[in-house]
Amino acid sequence: DAKTTQPPSMDCAEGRAANLPCNHSTISGNEYVYWYRQIHSQGPQYIIHGLKNNETNEMASLIITEDRKSSTLILPHATLRDTAVYYCIVRGENQAGTALIFGKGTTLSVSS
Amino acid sequence: KAGVTQTPRYLIKTRGQQVTLSCSPISGHRSVSWYQQTPGQGLQFLFEYFSETQRNKGNFPGRFSGRQFSNSRSEMNVSTLELGDSALYLCASSLELAGELFFGEGSRLTVL
User: Fold this and answer.
1) 3-class DSSP state for residue A89?
2) Do A92 and B98 touch (CB under 8 A)?
3) Please, which residues bridge with residue B50 across strands?
4) Which residues of B touch A98 (CB under 8 A)?
5) Which residues on chain A are in Cβ contact (under 8 Å) with B35?
6) B10-13 vs B107-111, strand pairing mode
């Protein structure tokens, strides 16, 4: 079973920041938080991952709470092309033989 | 560099037949994993290979099998197809086990 809980859907206006929450209250100390997204009919795309510090790359920012029980993916200026299903996943980075367990994800709809 | 390539992209089979799907990982990637995606069950892990060895297997019947070749290319086979096997089959590669995954576009199988 997935170790994360996400809202099933969210809406965002184009140009505004999209903040996608994720709860992972049972996360272990050596497990990372990964975010992927899947645009309709395409394979999932890696966005970002982190352990406990906040992370930023060209696509998004990841804010992890101090107790690591939840995190937020931030798309700073959402565009229509960001409409997708966003998956939050926890996984140990060096856990050989473990697989990504995808939950239902959050369907983000960006509108103009 | 080229991404993960899956063939065929689309195929139609009838119940009872068998099917083989192919996945060519990103050059240099040694780990390949397979996922099944259906509207009802979402993304589900099938199996993961590293250096020609299956390292992990999901909860699927024995009709689902796979293998990895010395050049890291992978194939998965489904025998005695059932209607419920209709799905998008996704392959992902990574540099090492439990690394960042790069997904292909998938092979969409329809069983009639």
Assistant:
1) strand
2) yes
3) B31, B53
4) 56, 98
5) 100, 102
6) parallel
Cα–Cα distance for residue pair A17/A7, rounded to 1 Å: 17
Q: What CA–CA distance (Å, rounded) separates B52 from A60?
A: 35
Question: Residue A7 in contact with residue A104, Cβ under 8 Å?
Answer: no
For chain B, the helix, strand and coil percentages under 3-state DSSP, each to the nearest 5:
5, 55, 45
| Cα A37 to Cα A31: distance, rounded to the nearest angstrom | 19
Q: Cα separation of B99 and A27, whole Å?
A: 18
* Chain B CB contacts of A44 below 8 Å: 43, 90, 92, 101, 103
Give how far B39 is from chain A: nearest CA, Å. Answer: 10
Q: How many CB atoms lie within 10 A of CB B3?
A: 14
Non-local (6+) Cβ contacts of A44 within 8 A are: A36, A37, A38, A87, A102, B43, B90, B92, B101, B103
Helix (H, G, I), strand (E, B) or coil at B85: helix
B8-55 pLDDT, tens digit each: 999 999 999 999 999 999 999 999 999 999 988 888 989 889 889 998
Residues B62-78 pLDDT 10s:
999 999 999 999 999 99
